[in-house]
Specification:
single chain, mainly alpha, two-stranded antiparallel ribbon
Length: about 80
């Protein structure tokens, strides 16, 4: 999975579970930063969501869940 595919997955789940627009969630998630799997062998990506406190909490909770299934992303 790539970073763009991860963003699409996150947005789809957030829209399905919490409503609002794709644009809203894309902006709140922000970019996903990738690191080398050599230096970060357990999880090579991070997102830093921004926005309203409730939205950030929802995104961070979802990030915790999807990291278990997708710890490594491809460039």
């Amino acid at each position: 999975m790539t970073a763009n595919e991860m963003i699409d997955l996150l947005i789809a789940r957030l829209v399905r579970d919490h409503g609002k627009s794709k644009h809203h969630w894309r902006k709140a998630i922000g970019p996903i930063r990738l690191y080398s799997a050599t230096t970060h062998p357990h999880c090579n990506w991070v997102a830093n969501p921004t926005g309203m406190g409730r939205d950030v909490a929802l995104i961070e909770s979802l990030l915790d869940d999807v990291r278990l299934a997708h710890p490594l992303l491809h460039h």
